[in-house]
Each structure stands twice: as C-alpha cells, then as structure tokens.
Amino acid sequence: MKRYRLTLEGKTYSVELLSDPSQDEVRVNVDGEVFTVGVEPVQEETAAANAPAAAPLRAPVAAATPAAAAPDVPQAVGTNVVKSPLPGVVKSIAVHTGQTVAFNDELCVIEAMKAMNVIRAPRAGTIGTIYVTEGRKIPHGSPLMDLG
Fold first, then answer.
1. Residue 127 maps to which CATH number?
2. Which of 34, 44, 100, 115 allows an S-S link to 67, with CB 3.0 to 4.6 Å?
C-alpha cells in the first residue's frame, strides 16, 4: 500500500496505509506500530475548493488505537452496514434476511474487472436489510446489507 512521511509538531513519522483509505476505518502502520483509525471527508472552505487537491481530503476522526494482535480478528466498526469494498456487479447473494452468519462467512460475490470477489462477514451477526440484488452495478462504498 502507500507510504507517507508525516511531520506533526516537529516529529516525523513513517506511515504506511494497510487498508483502503476510502473506508470509514483504515489500518495504518506508524513507525512499526499498527493502528485502526476512523476517517471522514473534510469539508473545504470556498476558496480552498477551487485549489487543486494534492491528496485525498480525509482526516482522522477518532483517537488511534492499537489494532488487535491477530490479523484475522475483525475490528469493531461504528455501523452495522456492510459496504462494498470495490465497484462492480453483484453476481450472487449467499444470505437472506434473518440469517445468522459467523465471522468470515460468504455474504455475496462482486465481479470487478472479470474477477469474482467474495465479500465475507466482518463479524458474526444476523442479516438485516439487503440493499442489493443480483446483476446490479454498484459503486465503491455502497451499502450491501445490514449485519446486526
């Protein structure tokens, strides 16, 4: 993933993005320590809106907390909505409303660039509303289903 050198209050940090920076939470490696941080878009002022942006306008919204020791343990998220990690076409939906799923169970398959991408449950729960249907084109970040 991408690496950055950031300076904050005179101290320089080596930062590596470990997950998709367009998600609500991002895993980052800061000088060898892994954190999960929340991010949200930053609203620009009118004058700044006309200037070209050098980088995505996202900023931390929660204090960084060390990530879990085991990489296969899902991180807690602030919402029950499972979102699409990539744009594509929903090829199949493996669950139904009211179904109980375990961590890493298959939820659906999204085809992107001729590759079939299995979307798995980020944690155990019960399927609520399913927002997509088979054959539907979806953009990155669109809601797929609720996982209560």
1. 2.40.50.100
2. 34
Residue labelled with tokens 């939820």: 107
pLDDT digits (tens, 9 = 90+) for 52-89: 554 444 444 444 444 443 333 333 344 688 999 989 99
- As a whole number, mean pLDDT of residues 43-52 equals 53
DSSP 47: H
C-alpha triplet 116, 76, 108: angle, nearest 5°: 20
Is the whole-model pTM more than 0.70?
no
C-alpha closest to that of 133 among 100, 99, 102, 108:
108
Q: What is the dihedral of CA 62, 70, 92, 79, to 10 degrees?
A: -20
